Each structure stands twice: as C-alpha cells, then as structure tokens.
C-alpha cells in the first residue's frame, strides 16, 4: 500500500519536532489560552528534509500582545522589533522562536514598507507565503497535529521545484524581495525555479528598487553564503534582477578575459568564486569577505578595457578601479565598514602576486606584501590561488608551486622577524628627542620613513636607524 505523501510528510515533521519539546510546550500554552499555534514555513520544510535547526517559526490567531503574555514567563528574553508586522520573537535556551499573527501584507507602488493586515485563518496566511515549499504548516494545537498543505508544497519539495502559492506576479507585487529569495533558495536547496517565476522576475525586476538596501543586503548575504551561490547569481543576472541589485556583475559578461581561457570575465568570476569556496578551510570555514572579494575582484575591468593593436585586450589598473567600485557598491548595500574595507583591500591587492615572477622578489618586496595585506594575508592567499583559472594543467601547477614558494618565504620571514609586529627601530618619542621637535605631522612622516627602511632592509638597530633619521632630516628639513 502506498503511503499518502501528506501523511508521510506529517510523520517526518512530527518526528523531527520530537527533538524540540519546546514546540509542544508552547502549543499547550496557546491552546490553554484559547488560541491556535502552528509550525510554519521554512522549519516545516526543513523538518521534512531532516535538517531542522534551532530557529522555529510559528503562526497563530493570537495578537502580538496576547502572544507576549503567553510566553513571557518562560522566555529567557523577548524582543518586539517585528511587532508592527505581528511578530514577537523570543529565546528559550538555545532555541529562537518567532511567533507571528496570521496576516496578509502588500507593498504600495512606491512604498518601501508593507501594509500589514492581520488575518483570522491559517489558510489566508499560507496563501501569502513566498513559495509553496514554505507554505506548509503543522498545526500543533490539534490532536494529533494536523499537516496543512493547500498549495502542493510537499509535491514541489519532492520534485525540487520552486513555485508560488498564487501567481508569481501577485506574490512579487506583495513583496518584491521574494524575487531575490527565489535565487537564494535555488542556491541553498539546489531547486529548479518554475518558468512562470522566471518570466515574472524578468517583467518585474525594477520593482526591487522599493526594497530597502538593508533587506537586499541580508538576502544577498544568504545567497552568497549558500552551498552553491553560482546558481543564485546566475538567476539574478539572467533575469535582469542583478542590474538593480549589483549591476557590476552582469556588466562582466561584455568583457573578454585577457587570458582568453574563458568565454568572458563573468564566467571567470564565477569560477574564482567556486575555487575560493573550495579553499575556505584555510579560513576556518565559510567566509563572507573572501566570497565577496572573489565575486568583485574583476569588476574594474569594464571601465579599464582597452584593445591592443594587433589583437588582444588589456585591463590596466583594473584592480585600482575595482577596489573603488567595490567600496561604493558595498556601502550602498549597507555592509559594515569592516567588510567594506576588507573586501576593497583584497580587490586592490589581488594582482600583486603576478609581479613575483618565478621568485624574483627581494625580501623587502615580500615584507611589503605582508605589510600591505595586514590581517588579510590568509584571505589574500586564498583569493590569489582561486584567481588561477587556466585550463592549462602545467601552467596551473607552475603557478601553484610558485605561490607555495612565496608562502614558504613569508612564513620564514615572519618567524625570523615577527613581521606581524613590525615597527621601526625608533618610536615616536625617540624620533622627537633625536630631532628636537614637538609632536606634529613631521613625526609621522619620519616614522613612516623609518618603517619603509625597516621593510626594505630588515632590522637596522637603533644606532643605524638614528644615523638614517638624521640624514633624512638634513635632506628634508628645509622642505617641510
């Protein structure tokens, strides 16, 4: 006898929830107070897939004040930042819950914020969900729990297809960010996207402009930190949505890579991203900075493209232009200053290794490489290695061996000279005493001069450093 798919799904979800007794405890409290409570959305999907985490989403007919009253005695903490959208969030030990009143919402044509209306039944609430695989619920205040799937979510989950409960046009009109979620879920889950969704995104891509930069950023981070971001990025580009979210990426499709080993710089970029991800164990796991740097490392090429007489293309100083562009884009997306600075720095430095040749750098040049990379040295190692996408196996092995030798030299110099803690041989107080000057910008210039000497020649010792400082002072005092 064939088991009903919905019955099987319910059994799987209930079994997964057995490891989260909090869910049944909350259901009893809501039922006692005369309300319903259902596990809903992503957690139901993940429970069926056997990947239920510690973030649980519930929906209820209780209003926010009533929800807060029911849970406040047992919650470790409660926050109400989503109250206007009907959501009360709370922490119970290591489990985070969000409990949201049945609702419907839509965006007005020019509004960045949805108009939220509370509903009276779960059926209407599920209809407003983004995708059918997220429009399933497990009603916990019935005996036994009731599995609700009015829009074929369980079948779509089995088929690994993303569809919307209603029409994609209505769904994306209600919340345009769902267009980005389609790309994100495709990348996270490896699902195909229904052709109707693709058509709707192409027609409605400009609608994303009413969404705040912060919400777009958060969705983009989830996409790029997924298991296979190439899928999501390709969907953004192919539908035209990237033109509004991160337009630098589709522009790469127009440029021919100077190595002529790839169809275009866009394809090269996706390959670099994939290779950077494969090297992330060197950074202790998934890393946002390296993924953003890999994605953005060549975005300066379209603006620096020049045709070489006789054939070929050059992109001189694209790392300089790209670093500036990366900083501008990440700021517009409201990334933190640390992320903006770290990514733009890596974009600026990503070509530095190509001056190494077969090992011609002096120790001074290696010291500068270390100093300029600062705390990003391991990230730069990963990005530089990932940027080698040649199909010529012999050339790839040669580049890898050359970079191995550079890393060995770096480790040797760092061990010998503690380069991470490198300082000039004289500090600011000693500089002022030797030159007989008071605190001023001149001290900083002198300090930088001695630091450059230290990088070029290694440790000088205080006597040699003093002599070099006095020589510099005699040559430059009249110009300062």
What does this structure look like?
Helix 1 (5-17) packs across helix 3 (42-49) and helix 7 (168-174) packs across helix 9. This protein has a seven-stranded mixed sheet. The protein has a two-stranded antiparallel sheet with strand order 6-7. It is elongated, with a radius of gyration of 29 Å. The protein is built from 24 helices and 13 strands. The chain has helices spanning 5-17, 21-32, 42-49, 64-71, 122-127, 153-159, 168-174, 177-189, 195-204, 213-224, 229-239, 242-245, 248-251, 265-278, 288-296, 301-304, 318-332, 337-349, 363-373, 377-386, 393-417, 428-435, 441-457, 462-476, and strands at residues 38-40, 55-60, 77-79, 87-92, 95-101, 103-106, 115-118, 137-139, 146-148, 161-162, 192-193, 306-307, 313-314. It has 480 residues and is of the alpha+beta class. It folds into four domains: 5-159, Beta Polymerase, domain 2, CATH 3.30.460; 161-245, Orthogonal Bundle (Hydrophobic Seed Protein); 259-420, Orthogonal Bundle (Hypothetical protein af1432), CATH 1.10.3210; 423-479.
CATH-derived architecture of the largest domain: Orthogonal Bundle
Q: How large is the count of helical segments?
A: 24
Strand content: 5-15%
CATH topology of the largest domain: Hypothetical protein af1432
Largest sheet: 7 strands, mixed
Taken together, the total number of domains comes to 4
- SS-derived structural category: alpha+beta
Q: Output the strand order for the largest sheet.
A: 3-4-5-2-1-8-9
The coarse overall form would be: elongated
Indicate the mean pLDDT.
88
Rg is: 29 Å
């Amino acid at each position: 006898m064939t088991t009903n798919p919905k019955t099987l799904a319910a059994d799987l979800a209930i079994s997964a929830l057995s490891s989260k007794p909090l869910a049944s405890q909350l259901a009893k409290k809501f039922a006692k107070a005369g309300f319903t409570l259902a596990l809903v959305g992503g957690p139901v999907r993940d429970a069926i897939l056997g990947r239920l985490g510690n973030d649980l989403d519930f929906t209820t007919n209780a209003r926010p004040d009533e929800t807060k009253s029911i849970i406040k005695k047992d919650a470790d903490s409660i926050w109400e930042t989503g109250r206007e959208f009907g959501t009360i969030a709370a922490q119970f030990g290591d489990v985070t819950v969000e409990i949201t009143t049945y609702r419907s919402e839509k965006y007005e044509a020019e509004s960045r914020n949805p108009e939220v209306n509370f509903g009276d039944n779960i059926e209407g609430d599920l209809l407003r969900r983004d995708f059918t695989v997220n429009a399933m619920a497990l009603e916990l205040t019935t005996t036994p729990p009731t599995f609700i799937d009015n829009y074929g979510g369980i079948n779509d989950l089995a088929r690994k297809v993303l569809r919307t409960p209603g029409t994609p046009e209505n769904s994306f009109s209600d919340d345009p960010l769902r267009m980005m979620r389609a790309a994100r879920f495709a990348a996270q889950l490896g699902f195909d996207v229904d052709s109707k969704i693709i058509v709707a995104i192409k027609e409605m891509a400009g609608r994303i402009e009413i969404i705040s930069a912060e919400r777009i950023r958060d969705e983009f981070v989830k996409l790029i930190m997924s298991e296979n971001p190439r899928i999501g990025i390709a969907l953004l580009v192919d539908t035209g949505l990237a033109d509004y979210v991160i337009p630098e990426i589709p522009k790469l499709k127009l440029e021919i890579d100077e190595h002529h080993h790839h169809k275009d710089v866009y394809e090269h970029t996706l390959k670099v991203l994939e290779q950077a991800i494969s090297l992330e164990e060197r950074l202790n796991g998934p890393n946002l900075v390296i993924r953003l740097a890999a994605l953005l490392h060549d975005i300066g090429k379209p603006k620096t493209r020049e045709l070489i007489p006789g054939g070929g293309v050059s992109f001189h100083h694209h790392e300089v232009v790209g670093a500036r562009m990366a900083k501008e884009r990440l700021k517009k997306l409201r990334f933190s200053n640390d992320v903006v600075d770290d990514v733009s720095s890596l974009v600026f430095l990503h070509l530095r290794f190509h001056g190494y040749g077969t090992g011609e750098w002096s120790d001074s040049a290696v010291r500068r490489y270390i100093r300029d990379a600062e705390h990003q040295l391991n990230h730069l190692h990963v990005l530089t290695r990932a940027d080698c996408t040649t199909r010529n196996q012999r050339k790839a092995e040669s580049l890898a061996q050359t970079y191995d030798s550079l890393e060995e030299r770096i480790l040797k110099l760092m061990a010998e000279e503690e380069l991470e803690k490198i300082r000039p041989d004289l500090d600011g107080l000693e500089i002022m005493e030797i030159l007989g000057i008071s605190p001023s910008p001149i001290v900083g210039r002198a300090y930088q001069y001695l630091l450059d000497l230290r990088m070029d020649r290694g440790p000088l010792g205080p006597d040699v450093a003093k002599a070099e400082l006095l020589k510099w002072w005699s040559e430059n005092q009249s110009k300062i």
